[in-house]
Write a structure and sequence with these properties.
By secondary structure, the protein is an alpha/beta fold. About 50% of the residues lie in helices and about 10% in strands. A five-stranded parallel beta sheet has the order 2-3-1-4-5, with helices on both faces. The chain folds into two domains: about 5-275, Rossmann fold (3-Layer(aba) Sandwich), CATH 3.40.50.300; about 285-325, no CATH class. Helix 5 (about 95-120) runs antiparallel to helix 6 (about 135-140). It has helices at about 5-10, 35-45, 60-65, 80-85, 95-120, 135-140, 145-160, 175-185, 195-215, 235-240, 255-265, 270-275, 290-300, 320-325; strands at about 25-30, 50, 125, 170-175, 220-225. Its main location: mitochondrion. This is NADH dehydrogenase [ubiquinone] 1 alpha subcomplex subunit 10, mitochondrial. Its cofactor is FAD.
């Protein structure tokens, strides 16, 4: 969107772009229940944009391009393989990984909301920031993190997540933790085969005892399906079409409120800042000098020392630099 004096005075307008499919639909469920196999098809059938499940390098790809990853030192030396291999790592990797995933899912949900507001096109997502906490609950139950880490996460969540709008629909694919674990081990490789069944049981418990009730209390439409032998995607499409959305939190918004959301979401520095509090947590806290050194090294390595358009190599000649022509 381009801001003009009129939009500055009276705000952006969004409601005229929305139709019956201007919704955020989230597919959720335990690991290996089959979300990926239907989410893309569901988006195609409903004319929506597909957002695959977020990963730890989501920001890297947004910054550097698809498939690109930063040097792991710039993202806390985290990896999914390392989490599965050593969930009790003494350097606090498990909690560092969990906090990074919350941040990436928060940014992805921000991108989804921006797409909805700017285009009116609906979204189908695999999992979202709203269910990220089920992993926190599971690793806490397993004894893989400290209570202080658990409390810190929830403090960050409380300071940030209220700034978003809940999804319109949550589609929960239900399979027993035993079946999910079996599928995960069969499809997995390397250290994934060593992930204990108790972890899957913890995820199942957090989903059913906390996540699904919270989504219903927030006014989201929740569709739950027995997915032990997979199911019919057309049934999901039909069920969504029949929903009434009587209690949806989106029912009470207007252009004025959406304008406030948009202005917050459009400022990525604000989005990141709302997930930051000045508190010492050994697992994730860098020393001031170490942090500054890493930031400077990152800017030099990835040609980002200056504002976009003023870094070496971004323009072909001096005229383009002077007039910022591309």
């Amino acid at each position: 969107m381009t801001e003009t004096p009129v939009t500055f005075l009276f705000g952006y307008k969004f409601m005229h772009k929305f139709d019956t499919n201007s919704k955020i639909v989230v597919l959720d469920g335990n690991l290996a229940v089959g979300k990926t196999s239907i989410a893309n098809d569901l988006a195609d059938k409903m004319g929506m944009k597909y957002f695959p499940e977020c990963h730890a390098h989501y920001l890297d790809e947004r910054t550097l391009g698809p498939g690109q990853k930063c040097d792991p030192r710039f993202s806390g030396d985290i990896s999914l393989d390392r989490f599965y291999a050593d969930p009790l790592a003494k350097d606090g990797h498990t909690f560092r990984f969990q906090m990074m995933m919350y941040g990436m899912r928060f940014l992805q949900y921000r991108d989804a909301m921006m797409h909805l507001l700017e285009t009116g096109q609906g979204i189908v997502m695999e999992r979202s920031v709203y269910s990220d906490f089920v992993f926190l609950e599971a690793i806490m139950d397993m004894g893989w993190i400290r209570k202080a880490c658990y409390d810190f996460y929830n403090e960050i969540k409380g300071l940030s997540l209220y700034r978003m709008k809940h999804p319109h629909v949550v589609v929960y694919l239900d399979a027993s933790p035993e079946l999910a674990h079996q599928r995960f081990v069969e499809r997995g490789k390397g250290y994934e085969k060593n992930v204990p069944l108790e972890y899957f049981q913890g995820l199942d418990k957090a989903y059913k005892e906390k996540f699904l009730p919270e989504m219903k209390d927030a006014g989201c439409e929740v569709l739950q399906y027995d997915w032990k032998s997979f199911g019919n995607i057309d049934r999901i499409v039909d069920d969504i079409a029949y929903l009434k959305f009587k209690d949806s939190p989106w029912n009470i918004v207007d252009d004025t409120e959406l304008d406030k959301h948009y202005r917050f979401l459009a400022n990525e520095h604000q989005v990141v800042d709302c997930m930051t509090i000045p508190k010492y947590v050994p697992e994730i806290t860098y020393g001031a000098q170490q942090f500054d050194d890493l930031i400077e090294e990152y800017k030099i390595k990835y040609n980002k020392r200056y504002a976009p358009g003023f870094n070496p190599g971004e323009y072909k000649n001096k005229l383009e630099l002077m007039f910022k022509w591309k």
